[in-house]
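User: I'm preparing a small set of examples for a lab meeting where we compare how different chains pack in three dimensions. I only have the primary sequence for this one, and I'd like the structure in token form so I can line it up with the others. Please keep the answer compact; I'll paste it straight into my notes.
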Amino acid sequence: MAENAGKAGTAWAETDTGPNESHQASFDFVIVGATGDLTMRKLLPAFFERFRMGQIADDTKIIGVARSDLSVEVYRERARSALSEFSASFASDNKDAEKFLELVHYVSLDASDTSAEWRPLETLLSVNPQRVRVFYVATAPKLYVATADAIADHGLITATTRIVLEKPIGTDFVSARAINDGVGRHFAEEQIFRIDHYIGKQTVQNILALRFANPILERVWNADSIAHVQITATETVGVGKRGPYYDTAGALRDMVQNHLLQVLSLVAMEPPTALSAMDLRDEKLKILRALKPMDKVSIASDTVRAQYVAGMVDGKRVDGYLEDLGSDASNTETFLAIRAEIRTTRWAGVPFYLRTGKRMAHKESEVVIEFRPQPWAIFKDTPEPNRLVLRIQPDEGVSLSLSSKDPLAEGFRLRDVNLDVSYIKTFGTRYPDSYEDLLMAVVRGDQVLFIRRDEVQASWRWIEPVLDGWAENVRPMETYPAGSRGPASADELLRDDGFVWKEKT
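Assistant: Understood. Below is the structure token output for the 505-residue chain.
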């Protein structure tokens, strides 16, 4: 199957799943790995929110599949507990909650095993074989192909069947291609939905609206006006229960290969012909392919990797990564910073700085566009650079920093001011979780918010040399105290170019 195969998809405007979204036809949604953290924290609460908005029909089936030997009643109680903890609307909507739980079913099954007893699942799905059927595979990526094989062997793929694959798609280029090829033996490209919850965030989607619906911005969105771009995603928490997985992945695989490169491609892409799945993903792919390849020289000079050690947070000692992991040694990075370049006319000479880390001083995800200064100064004061900041989380919104005359100062003195928009305050509504949009988009068959196989493989082509270089210790591992801003070398990465990270105050 060709890497670019796939339908054009529906227009972006049709992906709006806000409170006024029309009622969806009944569907069957099978969650493989239904006892896991993702299902309980994100998937079931997302479905519940859409159900209480009237977007999910009463005879829809949400079928949990996992190896645990549970009855439907026990699983529904687990679902009830999860909704109580992770859905803000649950407690105030008891009647809706009871109706929703009636949609939830459970089948004990190892879905990666063709020889297992599939009859209970087949029976549930046989009631309405003509309607949309989704298999959401929330398991380890190594089970994706075996699960697709088993689904196909039991004749459960229909014309309206879709399969959803969670990131990461593989651990390198070869394994990603093997997964894409293996799943692609049974599902056409337009039936495969590779999910990245970052793209489901309204603030990430709003990058396109800010650029292409506001000509005043798009006309300065280039190397003539922009000095550099920062993309940051930091967390205050450590690895927690994800330690065993995280130690095999690290920040580069876990965050950059998917989330941050997807954000970068939306920031840097050329205007698509239309906001359709094919056109949008074609333009993102061009950016991923235009990234300047990383060699050993640039890996040594343009990357930073580090691991958190014990530190003080709010006056209390916090364990380091090795203590969290319960190990004596690990070469896995929990922080990284990378200087990237995009080889296009629009972005010639503009550095893109990517930064992510765990156990950092602040939790924030944002994009910072810093504009070039005036070529000559006419004021005595040296104004701060104009910055457009796109806040992905928390406090979702956008702000633009400007220099203004200070009305309280004598003479012509400048003062930095911000034009700030908080999305929650502006729109006055509950901010939907990204999975709400994504799950309903799968049901509609709309691939705009999902990643095509050639995007996945292009990302791995750029990432893999960095992984290899780090494995050879081309850039040595550093450490940083838990609760800090990361290693000093990350600041030097920008300082060498005359810039500084924008930090939360």
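A couple of notes for your slides: The mean pLDDT is 90. The first helix runs from residue 37 to 52.

User: Perfect, thanks.
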